[in-house]
């Protein structure tokens, strides 16, 4: 029998015995980001987290200041062939059409009912706002929450034929959990409607509704039959996109983030606000490059255009994730 003659040898033997007796699955679980390939983005994430969370480090950041902000569409879940909020609005137009016969001859509603996507696209942002005002307002916040919850439970993506909540990105779910395990508070900062996201984000992302910043319409307090209600009005309150994102972060979070994650030009100002400041910061862009497992697009697309922000990433040394190269899987179902 071999008997170690010194402490260092004893430690080495003990380590080898432990490894030999440890199941491979248990060893794999020590990797906080198992769905990420061992490429530069994963290494950059781990290096940043270790820097800011290790006490005594020159870059240590106290827990209350470890704020990480995430875009939603295209960053945490799929945004093609159209934003999920647009799919919701289109379904709402069809569901309410019988109560609005005028929509049959009024654009952009007529285009929705006739499936004329070209005319709908030509309506641009103005048309989208019209659809949202008509389908998201005129009800209480409780009524809207029920409509959203019922829809998100039954709606299916046209390509993958699965609920939208199953088309979240497994690598980003792991990243959210990894950050929280290291003292970060994670927020969604999205151009999507805040009340469209709040009913389901905690179950899917582990992010509570009070940590969601998004676009909103005006609401007003009313007493209805002795019951206090908040009624949704057909008026835009705030657009949480592009330059609006830093404003929304300041108003709702009250701290400048030290990490920001996005995928499009709509996230450019949020990434700039987060990373172009004193101290240790981290910026990451998800680049959609995998047409087989998901979608491939960047500078030439109507949804999630990545042009100015991609150029800015090189200048500002933000980490760019190549989905095809850097992610082992895309969706949670790919793990099965």
Automatic annotation (TrEMBL):
The terms under GO molecular function for this entry are: hydrolase activity; metal ion binding
Q: Which Gene3D superfamilies match?
A: HAD superfamily/HAD-like (3.40.50.1000)
Q: Signal as a keyword?
A: yes
What range does the record give for the signal peptide? 1-28
Q: Which Pfam families match?
A: HAD
> Which keywords fit this entry according to its UniProt record?
Hydrolase, Magnesium, Metal-binding, Signal
- What name does UniProt use for this protein? Phosphoserine phosphatase
List the taxonomic lineage. Bacteria, Pseudomonadati, Pseudomonadota, Alphaproteobacteria, Hyphomicrobiales
């Amino acid at each position: 029998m071999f008997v170690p003659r010194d402490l260092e040898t004893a430690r080495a033997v003990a380590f080898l015995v432990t490894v030999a007796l440890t199941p491979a699955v248990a060893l794999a679980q020590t990797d906080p980001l198992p769905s990420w390939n061992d490429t530069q983005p994963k290494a950059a994430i781990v290096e940043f987290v270790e820097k800011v969370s290790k006490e005594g480090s020159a870059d240590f950041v106290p827990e209350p200041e470890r704020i990480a902000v995430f875009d939603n569409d295209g960053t945490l879940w799929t945004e093609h062939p159209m934003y999920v909020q647009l799919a919701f609005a289109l379904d709402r137009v069809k569901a309410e059409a019988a109560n609005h016969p005028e929509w049959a001859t009024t654009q952009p509603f007529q285009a929705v009912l006739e499936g004329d996507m070209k005319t709908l696209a030509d309506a641009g942002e103005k048309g989208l706002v019209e659809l949202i005002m008509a389908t998201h307002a005129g009800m209480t916040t409780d009524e809207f929450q029920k409509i959203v919850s019922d829809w998100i439970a039954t709606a299916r993506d046209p390509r993958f034929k699965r609920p939208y909540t199953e088309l979240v990105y497994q690598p980003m779910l792991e990243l959210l959990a990894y950050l929280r395990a290291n003292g970060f508070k994670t927020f969604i900062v999205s151009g999507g409607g805040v009340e469209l996201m709040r009913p389901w984000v905690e179950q899917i992302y582990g992010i509570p509704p009070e940590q969601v910043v998004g676009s909103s319409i005006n609401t007003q307090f009313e007493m209805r039959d002795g019951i206090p209600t908040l009624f949704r009005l057909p008026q835009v309150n705030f657009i949480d996109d592009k330059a609006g994102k830093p404003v929304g972060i300041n108003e709702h979070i009250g701290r400048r983030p030290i990490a920001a994650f996005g995928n499009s030009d709509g996230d450019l100002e949020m990434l700039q606000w987060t990373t172009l400041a004193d101290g240790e910061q981290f910026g990451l862009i998800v680049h959609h490059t995998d047409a087989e497992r998901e979608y491939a697009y960047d500078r030439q697309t109507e949804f999630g255009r990545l042009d100015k922000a991609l150029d800015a990433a090189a200048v500002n040394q933000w980490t760019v994730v190549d989905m095809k190269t850097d992610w082992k899987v895309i969706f949670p179902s790919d793990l099965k």
